[in-house]
Amino acid sequence: MAVRKIVIVPTLLTLGNAVCGLASIAYASRIGKEGFIRGLDDAYVRELNNYFLASSGWLILMAMVFDALDGYFARLFKSAGRFGAELDSLCDAVSFGAAPAFLLLQLGPTWDWPLLHRLLAAVATLYLMCAILRLARYNVESIEGIGSGKKFRGLPSPAAGGCVATLAILRGTLVGTGWDVPSVHAGLEVWAVAGAFLVALLMVSRVSYPHLTKQILRNGRKTAALALPAAILLVFLRELALVVIFWGYVLTGLSQYIAVRVAERRKELAAEFDDTLP
Question: What structural domains does the chain harbor?
Fold first, then answer.
């Protein structure tokens, strides 16, 4: 009986990940509908839409918490196995594939701009396909023992989902601030489309990204050292800090990959030049 209770803990945490993904989709689906159904005034409708937008993003981040904890407890209770790995990928496909893709449709240009909205739909579709491909590739590589536990090959799907979610949270919390102007909202719409296209391609790329969750959970000293700067960043920048953290992770990994590739290419060119000398 005790063993069953221990094994069920990571399973329930993994399923909690999927539930958060479903809740995120449910909140995002209500954007733009409340005023039509209830006949509310425009100001209140806008406030509701922002609330649903931010809530949908927060639920994706909550799914990331469940995703981090299920692996930790599976290792803690020595109950990790193929069932848990497959279940985790299925839940990730909902929370970090379908949910961000659907949220992206609500975050970007509306049907008021038909061409841009079709482009947005294409990017959202690409994002979903790349997230599923990323998860399938990860499962195959883990079975075949390809790669290391310290780095991911390709951007992990939770980080990609977090990039979309943080943009939704930021846009949903602009009300009442000096940044609540049409130009900022338009900029976030463009960023959402272009950024989602970038993270979609990075998920199926060969760019390496560190496994931050494992490093944080296993190395208490480094976590404590980073806790204060992170707390200060969150206090002063609030929702913007989340955008900086997630997009900083994405762009840092990409820039390091480009720097390494450029250095390797220079060495190859230097070697070829030396070979041509008499």
Answer: 2-276 (1.20.120.1760)
